[in-house]
């Protein structure tokens, strides 16, 4: 399923260009600390992208504004899903930290959905 990797990388690249998103993490990004290791060990580094928004309220507005992406804590399906990890109080992450799992949607549609949700949040 290389398309989910390509979708994740497209989303990650778009996110890192935005001034209102911080700490974008995906091993497919050249600046990621594990990029060289991932490139040596894997053909495709996977669908998970993490990033941080300003606060919990903005993160929740972002999740609510997504149209193609389901809010879910389980990433077991083929559709894209996302969650605000801090709401579970099980990990020490920023309140606006988002875990996003890219699915098999059209990459342009997926990036457009994330962009419109960021604009609306």
What does the model show?
With 121 residues, the chain is α+β, with helices and mostly antiparallel strands. The protein has a single domain, classed as Aspartate Aminotransferase, domain 1, CATH 3.90.1150. The protein has four helices and five strands. It has a five-stranded mixed β-sheet with strand order 1-2-5-4-3, covered by helices on one side. The longest helix is centred in the first third of the chain and has 15 residues, at 2-16. The protein is globular and about 40 Å long. The mean pLDDT is 88.
Q: What is the residue-averaged pLDDT? A: 88
End-to-end Cα distance? 31 Å
Superfamily at the CATH H level?
Answer: Aspartate Aminotransferase, domain 1
- Biggest β-sheet, characterized? 5 strands, mixed
What is the level-2 CATH architecture name?
Alpha-Beta Complex
Instruction: Predict the CATH topology.
Output: Aspartate Aminotransferase, domain 1
């Amino acid at each position: 399923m290389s398309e989910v990797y390509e979708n994740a990388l497209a989303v990650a690249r778009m996110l890192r260009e935005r001034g209102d998103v911080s700490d974008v993490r995906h091993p497919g990004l050249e600046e990621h600390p594990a990029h060289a290791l991932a490139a040596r060990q894997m053909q495709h580094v996977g669908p998970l992208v993490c990033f941080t928004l300003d606060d919990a309220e903005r993160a929740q507005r972002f999740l609510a504004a997504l149209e193609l992406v389901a809010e879910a804590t389980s990433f077991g399906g083929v559709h894209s899903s996302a969650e605000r990890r801090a709401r579970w109080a099980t990990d020490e992450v920023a309140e606006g930290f988002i875990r996003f799992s890219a699915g098999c949607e059209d990459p342009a549609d997926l990036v457009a959905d994330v962009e419109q949700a960021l604009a609306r949040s």
